Amino acid sequence: MRYTYRIPGEDEAVEIDIAPLDDPEGGYRVTVRDRVFDLPARSLRRAAFLRQAGEITVQVDGREYRLYDARQRRRAPASAPGDLHAPMAGRIIRVLAKAGDSVRAGDALLILEAMKMEQQITAPHDGIVASLLCEEGDQVTAGQELVVLEEVKNEK
User: Fold this and answer.
1) Per-block average pLDDT, block size 10, for the chain (156 residues)?
2) Cα(54)–Cα(70) distance, rounded to whole angstroms?
3) Which domains are seen in the chain, by residue range?
4) pTM exceeds 0.85, yes or no
5) DSSP codes, 90-107
6) Which residue, of 47, 83, 105, 155, is most buried by count of CB atoms within 10 Å of its CB?
């Protein structure tokens, strides 16, 4: 299967082919440009994979890589203030809101720790916290939805 790796912060994209190895123990052959890597199954025990809507997130040795299905030419939207999805893989270290809470735009809902940095996940608009999809101590993956926030319509 062919994927595209987009280099963070750049427009450059690298085509990657991934095919199963013809090996009874399993594994994959990964071709990046003119380089070929054979990854036996035993080497993949230190890696985590998440496949979601034409995108594969690979976490290995403390780094994260996102591969996009080249046939779809689709790219996940960048995380922005008020995005209720994890901007990167990490651990939830503090939950500041609970289901049913009324919040205002910009209020911190929870804190994610990733790569020794803390990042607040904030409300994009006034609303009611419908549900929290994580709790303190949870490990989350990049792009994982963390909070469901119902918008409050102001009556005039």
Assistant:
1) 68 79 84 82 73 69 67 46 77 94 92 87 90 92 88 69
2) 9
3) 2-69 (no CATH), 90-151 (2.40.50.100)
4) no
5) EEEEEE---TT-EE-TT-
6) 83
